[in-house]
Task: inverse folding
């Protein structure tokens, strides 16, 4: 088991290197620093001088991979690749266009992101499972049929609609909650409530329907018939036997996104004015702040890989067949 | 005496199909009643109707089920739960699927104990351990804390039985309880069931397709066909003189020891149950049917204590004795067609941090065999012994680790594989997974000819027509897709596919084990005809000894990757010398009572090939094992006439 | 010639796709085992109703993909000059809807602008809501508006119903002749749902769509049905034009996804070993990068590339079109992984099946085993993935356009509509119609696609067999 996890951890390294090389290629090779400068400066101010100045300011005036002018190890270290891509392995992301340290920003902004994303994750999981179990319990009745139709309708609505409608009705029209904003500590509760509510509602349709399929697949299996043949009631069959088996794919599917919760949600945070990593990212995209975008790509990949490793661990934790073999 | 279970006129429908139609029978306490029938005849649905556990879409239309004083069909669902697992419990076919994979077996047994005996905590644990002792699970206390996947098939089924006993049921329903098990394990489990029935005076409803199992276990028998019960009687009278034409044909379709005569087959198929059925349901397939059979459904007739639903009961010709033909003896040809020396297939086991190879599974370990043209060698063994791997390694579907293969005098290597593939082909076990559902039958047959360039392109259409005729399929079969055919017909297509490239050797991997008895007979007859016609050699891989006796000239018995005994089929099966072969032969349930043969029951399970025992692999289960058996693997002991064994004990006797 | 046909890149691909679909339909019709699941889809009322709605969207999208440029009226006959504005057959059909532009916002079915302005009335300058140039321009007085609208709705309903009944009559006549039935028996069979195909649902859906269409037609002749946007353009027109964008994203993206997913997924599962390792590595790397960021990075690059080569595009439409195509490409590259993983798993299972072993026993080549044994047996998964992904992609467009990495801001799309309108929610009174129309159209398309996808999945997925 230990060797297995260690192997997974080591496997993460080539993946991260792959991500790093890919972003390097996208941001510096296909799209050269000159192009970036032109885009940033706007059509009016493009002069060779301005471009050079911009590159020096942002530290993009070095050669890409190999500095033939330098000597010794500086040949490799005094390059864009080393300064801007390889440095990310040490979580050195440099500064954004606004001059602030990106690593620092990440440290302060991940908590608001988590304050929204974690409740959404936990409440969403509970609500979806409950709804799915209800549909499965009434699976031979019209309740299930209409439940599925409701799910399909809910998942056909654009996520933006949930946010806009939530903000408009709950916050603006009925004035129940603040429309946007954020505060730390206990005061933040009222700001968190609406985004969480809206996000859970937006995920309900597809989530519940997916879990229902998982439970239905389990309920058709022989061991369920055995449980009934023992004389167990339907509720007990559902909760002890079906839920326990169905939770294996559900949990392992959920664990992979767990680390990514730190990244927050782009859309929700930007609509609700949450100062998290999601809105940080979206601002960076809109301002074309490449340093921040690069940092977020690396961070996202890193967290995803952590999620993959956690998935492997959780698999062996919940499924005895994996744990004991 | 008042019966324990009384079923009256039970009718069960799934959708519009009446899968159980007017079934009545009764089971007394301490009695085993066997419901016998081929797949799809409604026997399992009858059992599930009694438990009221029909699948979604199924419903009981009418009838009455009386269990003791309880009217089972009239109970509200709440009350029914007390009956399920309490008064009446059920054991299912596939113990791997029927147990919850993520709950420890102890927990699953406790559930039933809590429900029906109100036991919890230590009391439940003690009761569970007592139950495991009762079903013969060794090391019971430890086994309670294992998950189903950690147990062997035989132990899992014992756990199922223990769970069924937890509610102290008056009636135990066993639905094909041993079909998924190996024959030596089947014998163990059936012993347990028999003993429990006597000890606890339970009534038992045994559902099976196996006449041998019925003969050894049942007190009374009911034969089902197409949703109806067609014959019923005490075991002895039924086996002495079955009355219904269908029952008779079932007997005659079965290969029997000492007899290689042509098997009787039943033409046609079981009728669909969702249409209007008139007359006797068996009439379309019955060779004796008269006009009345097609219009009027026969009622029950009593004949010397046996009950039968047939217009012709009593007036049928006396049981047609099949032409008895002595065992196959074909003259030896000097040059064997296939000669295998020292075949080994080892699979690496990778473990640890860098997936280092830490050992090998010796799936096939030093197997040598030879087959002459026109002869059949049967490779016999239980699941996991490596017999299928031998077949696949011969065709290089699995790369052998070591060994030489000579086919027609030519050494087969990776380079001349096409030669091999023209001369040797394979027929697989499951006719449903061996035909691509998205290809027409003609294209399936053409595939091999195309790939190996057999015959001119212009003549291939004729070749297909000839092949289809040869295996007894209609001419228009080529244009249809596999799903239009029944299991038996699909196996014919698979045989035709193998024959398409005119091979000299056909490797048959359990070609009849997925088929019903009557269909099995058709395929066995066909294989035999083709051998006579084309001079084919067969390597017949099977676990079914009855089939071996019918078809094979020679037999090789495998245990854990090695051949332990080999020789002429008649000699090996009638006078086996290796203790394992003896146990195997003894474990097969027989229709005819075995006289003068002591019953040998093996203890325990076949060990994992991952970690075979030292010395003779068989010694932990062997009744004759001595000190030397634990240390060295026995060499070959020649018994003359091509018969040899690998056994220290036999070597000591000779 | 009074116009010059313009074939944009996406047009080419759309019609190539259409040809491929028609070819596939023809192929399926000839193979009974391929036809059977489609027949099962056709028996499902929900799926067929959804298919009809989808068909309407597709027809609009296709009409909107036949592009041309009008000849300028004052161009010399020898050297014809053409307008830089690229129009489509759809524009020609709905003509006035496009040209009747107001000054700025106006509410649905309004006859006045949204904002007060100083206007000349009876010689005096007053601050009031000015009358619209086109919306309700035929009305003399303000109080005539409501009766006029009601009249138009009623006329539309009646006409829709009439056409519907006519079509129904024709269907009944054809069916009774074809099946040799009495009309009464056929009608009973129809009403009780015993036709063998979902006649009731289809008839009702067609009738509803006809009535809706007729009502819209009559209202649109005199009003802006969904109001106008900031620059006074008809919102109904924008919504309809956005259909093509949604369809292009939903379908062309899959066109990129499929070859990648099929080739790599099957190769990984079938060959295993190092091929599998490499492919798994590639898709784990791609998967690990947050999709939006990868798309954002790629879109920025495309934008730079487009701006660096302005000479390649003769019209704004061509520029926007290339960006749309690039978006489809990028979304395809980021979204093939899930299907590939599914196909890999299935191929792993299939390769151990006896019929593949039998083929190997004949020495059949890998290419042939894959094309004849593996691919046809995973095709249902591909199909299910196509229909399921479609709705997700349509929804994703809106989000991406909001983030600013979606389609070109000048392009008609629901995402751009939402993006442009959401800030106006703060206004008093609220400008809701633009958002409402975008969401309503998107919802209709996505719901229809989802319901259809459900039907397809139920019919094709063997695991779901026997479950409802």
Result:
């Amino acid at each position: 088991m230990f060797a297995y996890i260690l192997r997974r951890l080591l496997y993460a390294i080539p993946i991260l290197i792959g991500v790093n090389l890919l972003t390097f290629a996208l941001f510096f090779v296909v799209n050269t620093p000159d192009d970036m400068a032109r885009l940033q400066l706007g059509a009016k101010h493009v002069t060779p001088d301005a471009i050079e100045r911009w590159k020096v300011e942002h530290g993009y005036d070095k050669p890409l991979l190999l500095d033939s002018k330098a000597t010794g190890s500086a040949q490799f270290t005094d390059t864009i690749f080393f300064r801007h891509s390889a440095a990310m392995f040490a979580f050195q992301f440099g500064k954004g266009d606004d001059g602030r340290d990106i690593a620092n920003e990440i440290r302060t902004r991940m908590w608001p992101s988590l304050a929204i994303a974690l409740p959404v994750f936990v409440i969403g999981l509970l609500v979806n499972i409950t709804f799915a179990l209800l549909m499965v319990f009434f699976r031979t009745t019209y309740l299930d049929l209409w439940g599925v139709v409701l799910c399909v309708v809910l998942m056909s609505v654009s996520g933006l609609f949930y946010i806009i409608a939530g903000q408009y009705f709950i916050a603006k029209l009925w004035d129940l909650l603040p429309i946007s904003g954020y505060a730390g500590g206990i005061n933040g509760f009222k700001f968190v409530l609406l985004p969480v509510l809206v996000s859970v509602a937006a995920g309900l349709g597809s989530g519940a329907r997916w879990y229902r399929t998982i439970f239905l697949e389990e309920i058709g299996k022989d061991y369920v018939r055995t449980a009934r043949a023992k004389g167990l009631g339907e509720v007990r069959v559902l909760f002890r036997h079906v839920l326990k088996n169905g939770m294996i794919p559900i949990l392992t599917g959920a664990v992979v996104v767990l680390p990514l919760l730190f990244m927050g949600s782009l859309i929700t945070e930007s609509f609700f004015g949450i100062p998290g990593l999601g809105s940080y990212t979206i601002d960076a995209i809109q301002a074309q702040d490449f340093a921040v975008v690069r940092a977020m790509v690396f961070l996202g990949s890193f967290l995803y890989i952590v999620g993959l490793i956690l998935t492997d661990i959780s698999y062996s934790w919940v499924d005895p067949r994996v744990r004991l073999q | 005496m008042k019966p324990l279970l009384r079923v009256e006129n039970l009718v069960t429908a799934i959708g519009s199909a009446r899968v159980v139609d007017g079934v009545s029978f009764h089971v007394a306490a301490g009695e085993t009643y066997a419901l016998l029938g081929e797949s799809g005849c409604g026997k399992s649905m009858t059992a599930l109707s009694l438990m009221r556990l029909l699948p979604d879409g199924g419903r009981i239309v009418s009838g009455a089920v009386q269990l003791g004083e309880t009217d089972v069909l009239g109970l509200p669902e709440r009350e029914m739960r007390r009956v399920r697992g309490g008064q009446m419990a059920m054991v299912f076919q596939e113990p791997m699927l029927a147990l919850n994979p993520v709950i420890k077996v102890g927990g699953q047994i406790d559930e039933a104990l809590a429900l029906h005996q109100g036991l919890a905590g230590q009391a439940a644990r003690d009761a569970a351990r007592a139950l495991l002792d009762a079903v013969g699970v060794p090391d019971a206390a430890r086994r309670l804390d294992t998950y189903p996947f950690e147990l062997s098939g035989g132990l899992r089924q014992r756990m199922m039985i223990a769970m069924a006993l937890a509610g102290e049921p008056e009636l135990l329903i066993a639905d094909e309880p041993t079909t998924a098990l190996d024959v030596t394990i089947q014998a163990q489990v059936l012993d347990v069931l028999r003993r429990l029935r006597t000890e606890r005076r339970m009534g038992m409803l045994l559902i099976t397709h196996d006449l041998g199992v019925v003969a050894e276990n049942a007190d009374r028998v009911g034969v089902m066909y197409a949703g109806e019960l067609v014959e019923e009687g005490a075991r002895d009278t039924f086996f002495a003189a079955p009355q219904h034409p269908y029952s008779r044909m079932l007997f005659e379709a079965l290969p029997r020891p000492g007899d290689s005569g042509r098997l009787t087959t039943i033409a046609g198929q079981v009728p669909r149950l969702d249409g209007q059925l008139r007359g006797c349901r068996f009439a379309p397939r019955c060779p004796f049917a008269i006009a009345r059979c097609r219009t009027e459904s026969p009622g029950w007739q009593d004949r010397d204590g046996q009950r039968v639903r047939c217009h012709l009961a009593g007036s049928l010709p006396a049981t047609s004795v099949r032409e008895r033909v002595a065992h196959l003896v074909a003259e030896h040809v000097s040059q064997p067609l296939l000669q295998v020396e020292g075949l080994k297939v080892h699979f690496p086991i990778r473990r640890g941090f860098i997936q280092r190879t830490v050992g090998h599974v010796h799936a096939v370990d030093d197997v040598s065999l030879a087959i002459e043209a026109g002869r059949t060698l049967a490779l016999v063994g239980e699941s996991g012994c490596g017999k299928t791997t031998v077949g696949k390694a011969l065709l290089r579907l699995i790369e052998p680790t070591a060994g030489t293969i000579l086919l027609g005098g030519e050494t087969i290597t990776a380079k001349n594989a096409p030669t091999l593939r023209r001369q040797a082909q394979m027929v697989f076990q499951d006719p449903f997974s061996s035909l691509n559902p998205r290809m027409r039958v003609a294209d399936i047959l053409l595939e091999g000819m195309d790939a190996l360039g057999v015959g001119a392109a212009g003549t291939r259409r004729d070749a297909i027509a000839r092949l289809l005729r040869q295996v007894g399929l209609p001419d228009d079969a080529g244009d249809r897709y596999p799903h239009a055919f029944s299991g038996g017909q699909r196996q014919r297509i698979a045989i035709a596919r193998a024959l398409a490239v005119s091979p000299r050797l056909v490797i048959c991997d359990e070609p009849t084990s997925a088929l019903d008895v009557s269909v099995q007979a058709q395929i066995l007859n066909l294989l035999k005809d083709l051998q006579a016609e084309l001079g084919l050699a067969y390597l017949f891989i099977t676990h079914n000894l009855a089939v071996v006796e019918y078809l094979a000239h020679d037999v090789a018995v495998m245990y854990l990757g090695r051949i332990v005994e080999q020789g002429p089929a008649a000699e090996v099966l009638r006078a086996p010398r290796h203790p394992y072969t003896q146990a195997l032969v003894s474990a097969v349930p027989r229709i005819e009572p075995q006289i003068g043969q002591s019953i040998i029951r093996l203890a325990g399970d076949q060990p994992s090939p991952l970690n075979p025992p030292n010395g003779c692999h068989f010694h932990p289960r062997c009744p004759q094992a001595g000190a030397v058996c634990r240390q060295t693997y026995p060499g070959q002991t020649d018994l003359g006439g091509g018969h040899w064994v690998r056994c220290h004990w036999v070597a000591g006797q000779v | 010639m009074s116009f010059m046909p313009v074939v944009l890149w996406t047009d080419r691909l759309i019609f190539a796709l259409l040809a491929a679909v028609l070819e596939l339909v023809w192929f399926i019709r000839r193979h009974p085992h391929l036809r059977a699941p489609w027949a099962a889809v056709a028996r499902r009322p929900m799926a067929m109703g959804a298919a009809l709605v989808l068909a309407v969207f597709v027809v609009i999208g296709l009409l909107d993909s036949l592009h041309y440029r009008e000849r300028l009226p004052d161009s010399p006959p020898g050297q014809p000059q053409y307008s830089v504005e690229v129009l489509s057959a759809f524009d020609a059909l709905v003509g006035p809807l496009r040209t009747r532009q107001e000054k700025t916002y106006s509410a649905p079915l309004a006859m006045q602008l949204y904002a007060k302005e100083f206007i000349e009335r009876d010689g005096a300058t007053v601050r009031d809501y000015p009358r619209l140039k086109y919306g309700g321009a035929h009305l003399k007085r303000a109080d005539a508006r409501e009766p006029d609208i009601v009249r138009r709705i009623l006329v539309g309903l009646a006409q829709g119903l009439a056409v519907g009944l006519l079509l129904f009559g024709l269907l009944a006549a054809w069916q009774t002749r074809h099946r040799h039935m009495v009309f009464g028996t056929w009608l009973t069979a129809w009403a009780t749902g015993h036709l063998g195909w979902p006649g009731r649902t289809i008839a009702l859906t067609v009738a509803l769509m006809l009535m809706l269409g007729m009502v819209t037609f009559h209202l649109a002749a005199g009003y802006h049905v969904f109001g106008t946007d900031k620059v006074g353009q008809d919102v109904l027109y924008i919504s309809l034009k956005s259909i093509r964008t949604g369809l292009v994203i939903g379908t062309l993206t899959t066109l990129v996804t499929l070859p990648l997913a099929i080739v790599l997924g099957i190769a990984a599962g079938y060959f295993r070993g190092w091929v599998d390792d490499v492919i798994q590595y590639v898709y784990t790397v791609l998967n690990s990068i947050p999709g939006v960021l990868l798309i954002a990075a790629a879109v920025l690059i495309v934008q730079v590339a487009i701006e660096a080569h302005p000479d390649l595009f003769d019209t704004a439409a061509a520029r926007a079109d290339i960006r749309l195509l690039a978006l489809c490409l990028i979304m395809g590259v980021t979204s093939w992984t899930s299907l590939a993983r599914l196909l890999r798993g299935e191929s792993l299972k299939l390769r151990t099946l006896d019929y593949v072993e039998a083929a190997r026993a004949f020495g059949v080549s890998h290419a042939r085993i894959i094309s004849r044994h593996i691919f046809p047996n995973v095709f249902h998964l591909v199909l299910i993935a196509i229909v399921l992904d479609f709705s997700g992609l349509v929804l994703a467009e809106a989000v991406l356009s909001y983030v600013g990495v979606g389609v070109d801001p000048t392009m008609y799309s629901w995402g751009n509509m939402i993006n442009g309108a959401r800030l106006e929610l703060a206004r008093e009174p609220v400008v809701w119609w633009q958002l409402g129309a975008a969401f309503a159209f998107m919802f209709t398309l996505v719901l229809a696609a989802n319901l259809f996808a459900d039907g397809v999945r139920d019919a094709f997925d063997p695991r779901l067999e026997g479950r409802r």
